[in-house]
Amino acid sequence: MSDRSPRVASRRPTTPGPSAAVPVPPAGEPAPRALTIREWPSAERPRERLRSLGAQALSSTELIALLLGSGGRSGSALDCARRVLDGSDGSLGRLAAAPVGSLMRVPGVGEARAVVVHAALELGRRMAFEARAAGAALRSPRDVVSAFAPRLQDLPVEEFHVAILDTQHRLERDVLVTRGLLDASLVHPREVFREAIAERAASVVLVHNHPSGDPTPSADDRAITQQLVSAGRLLDIPVHDHVIIGRGCYVSFVEAGLL
Question: Is residue 141 domain-shared with residue 247, that is, in the same domain?
Fold first, then answer.
């Protein structure tokens, strides 16, 4: 028989997450200390992995940990990043839609870190919108939903947008008219069509979201739409549709026979 000791496979060092089971040490012995990220092998650290393999090779937790920068008394940056994602059930969309204050309540995340995370998520959302919208033709309600739903469906407040189209129904510009409670006094034809006139729009599509997730048009939604359609006729800038975006669903005024 060989007197060699059995080899133990090396494992990537980890820091236990909030739900990880940690053995209880015998009475009188100190608890085992989790390795900090700096104590990991260089090739296993998120920052070094991003440099050598690219950002796409990292998990969402690792990317958020890089935004947070460092850990603290509540654990490593990865521990903190796990708690951040757990707070949104692992959804980046829900995390981006949540207010900064909710992220600040996560242990280890202060105002500065919360703002950095939200800014990064917003940049990613804007880049995705640019990629979809650049030169995209909005010829049907589904085209409108594909372009706007990723940005609007998870927002905690209402936003009213005007999609300015050229003669080929291509999206020339997305104009945010108002953010907050939708009211006829806030969505005035002057505000809606000012940019459309400046851009020499051939037509426009109205788009807004319902934070409740139910896109059923309210009485105010119908009144605002009729007011803007009438103004568009006078200005020779037709309103092709008004699309209300809910969570995973939508209502088109054209498809519903309301326009």
Answer: yes
